[in-house]
Amino acid sequence: VTDSHGNAIAYRLHHRSNRPPKGWLPSWHGTKAQYVRSILRNGLKAAGSTVDGNVITPPKGHYELGSTHFGVKNWAAAVFVSPSLLYAGHPCYSERIVKSGRQWCVLVRTHVRPGTFGEYDSTVLNTDPVDGEPAQPEWRVDVEGDDLIWRQRDEGSVMVTTALFVDLEFFDQIGQGGGPTYHEATDMLSTPPKRL
Question: How far apart are CA 77 and CA 186, in angstroms?
Fold first, then answer.
């Protein structure tokens, strides 16, 4: 993916030939680079699931399996995506890696079947910690756009369409003076590659 000047702003690792069904809602998922291959092969799986012989567990500092949040028992036993590129791209969800002297964040573009997920407010209280607030970074994400969490129990209702490494310099300029607007960046990163 390039900007209007031809500079690489993201690399697509995979784009499925099958497009999401009409009407499915676009969303994002931040992850670690080591999980991308499994996500592309197996799709997104809920914490507690076994994939390739390994049990998926929530990352340190995130809600644990068995905990109740928003009145939902075992909150973590689900797939989580967000309609917000910036929310999913925060470092508490999206790993930062360095390649060829540049930093990249790891994102997965997904689509979800309408009416099959729960929509919840952000688990974020504030971008700056206050006295008594948990130190976990999941609680302090500053976002623009729809800072919602979509909690999906039915893994078959989430389709992975693209895995992306997004240039962190580009990502950090989204919505800033001189950078792309939130919607421009989302459109740039969401546009499927042209078929020859």
Answer: 28
